[in-house]
Each structure stands twice: as structure tokens, then as C-alpha cells.
Amino acid sequence: MLEAFSVFKEAELCQIAGEPVENKMTLQIDDAGAGDLLSGVAIGGYRPESKEFAYAMIDVSLFQPPRFSKKPYIRRATQLVLQLVKQLNLGYEETVEICSSYIFEDAVRELRRELGEERVKVSTITGDAQELVENAYINEVRKLGYEPIPEREKHRARSFFDMLRWVKRNPERFKNAKTGWPRLQRYVQPKSGRDKRDSRRGRVTARRGSRTFYRHRR
């Protein structure tokens, strides 16, 4: 069953009619947030020729124990990619360019199984597609009350520790963090018994996020 999605044009909410997709177009698929501490991961699809963009989020709970170790986020990414392809009305013979991120390892195989090897290309996604997916992730993070540092893509380490400091100021924020990462434990060492209980609660609290697609036409 396909998920519902909302339609936006610039800053306004609007309804648009579906348009046939011509051949020789390209659908670019990218992700954002997989290496960030806060929130889940944005999965987005962009068609440069028509400026159509849609995205959905992998919920942060899939990056928390005990689920994290089974890599459910890989399966969820595949589901969202296949739904994006349907939502954006992939045209006959239209090519799909998908990011080489590890999170798409199963999605690539499934797309090639359905569409054929020649129509699915693994590549580095840049330009408008990358920017739109990145902005989608940033907007989701801002909903938590956190303001990302400027040029976070160029300062990954600084961004990580800035997010970590923000989370540690309030243990309740751990529910919005990817606490399944083994490397995170070296930086999270509660001093008191109460802090330890709060931190543990934060690690196991799962918040089911929206499964809504947000679709834009630029």
C-alpha cells in the first residue's frame, strides 16, 4: 500500500494534477542524515527535468537498540525507494540514479530486479537533488528544537559533537538520537544513578514518526 503524500509549491501548499513522465528523464535518489546523530534519515527522489521532489523519513527508532543491530533501516530504505519510484511516476525507459550509500545496498538490487541493470545507475548525487534531500533532513532536525551548525557537511566532527552536547543537556532528547551506534557509548557516561536510568530510557524509547511523503515542485 502506498503512503500518502502532501504537495508543496515553493512555500505554498497546493494540489497539482499528475503529469505523464516522458522518456529520457532521470530520477535521482539520495539520502541525508545517515551519519548524523539526530533524527532518522531522509530518503528523497528528484527529477531534474520537471523539478519534482519527494521525500520521506526513516524513523529514528530503527537506529536505536534493540532494533539497530538487525539493520531494519536497510529494509525500510528499500521500501521508501520503491514507493518514491511509484509516487513520482517513473516513466518507461526512465533512468534511476541512486546514491552509493550503504543504506541503499538492498534498494539497488531490488530496483535492478524490477527495472533491469541498464536503467539503474549507482553514482554520487550532487546538485539540486543532494541539496533538496539535505534541506529536508535539516528541516526535520529543526522540528526537534535543534539548530544545526553552519556548513555542517564540511565540519562533520564538529557537527556530531554539537548535536551530542545538545542531547546530553536534556536526557529526554536521547529518544531523538541514533543511540544504536557503538561509538556513541564512549561519549555517553552518565555520572549519577539517575542520569544512568534517564540515559537508558532515552536509548530504548522508540518514537514512531510520520510515514508521510512530502512532495515539492520547484
SS content category: alpha/beta
Looking at CATH, the homologous superfamily of the largest domain is Prp8 RNase H domain, palm region
| SSE sequence, one letter per element | EEEEEHEHEHHHE
Level-2 CATH architecture of the largest domain: 2-Layer Sandwich
Number of helices: 5
Helix content range of the residues, please?
Answer: 25-40%
Unreliable runs, pLDDT <50, ≥5 residues? 1-18, 195-211
Instruction: Tell me the span between the first and last alpha carbons.
Output: 27 Å
Reported by name, the CATH topology of the largest domain is: Nucleotidyltransferase, domain 5
Main β sheet profile: 8 strands, mixed
Question: What portion of residues belong to β-strands?
Answer: 15-25%
Level-1 CATH class name of the largest domain: Alpha Beta
Q: Which word captures the global form?
A: globular
The radius of gyration computed from the alpha-carbon positions, rounded to a whole number of angstroms, is: 18 Å
